[in-house]
Design goal:
By secondary structure, the protein is of the alpha+beta class. The protein contains 3 helices and 3 strands, in the order αββααβ. The mean pLDDT is 90.
């Protein structure tokens, strides 16, 4: 079994993985597939750069946590 290294939004699309975004402050969460994440941040953007841009819609905090979800 191989290990996938997902470092960018393009990797999410290529491997069919999803992305779960959670706010560290209030616990609000959102789940996106690779294509939705590409519309949000662009295909070539790294996940670390995406985290720096995210802001919680509920509380306004800029403290997001990302979790990679396996392909369905």
């Amino acid at each position: 079994m191989s290990t996938k290294h997902i470092r960018s939004i393009a990797d999410l699309v290529r491997f069919g993985a999803g992305l779960r975004i959670e706010c560290s402050s209030c616990g609000s969460a959102r789940t996106l597939d690779g294509y939705q994440a590409a519309k949000l941040g662009g295909g070539a953007m790294s996940l670390s750069a995406l985290v720096a841009r995210l802001k919680c819609a509920r509380c306004g905090a800029k403290s997001a946590r990302l979790m990679i979800l396996p392909p369905v």
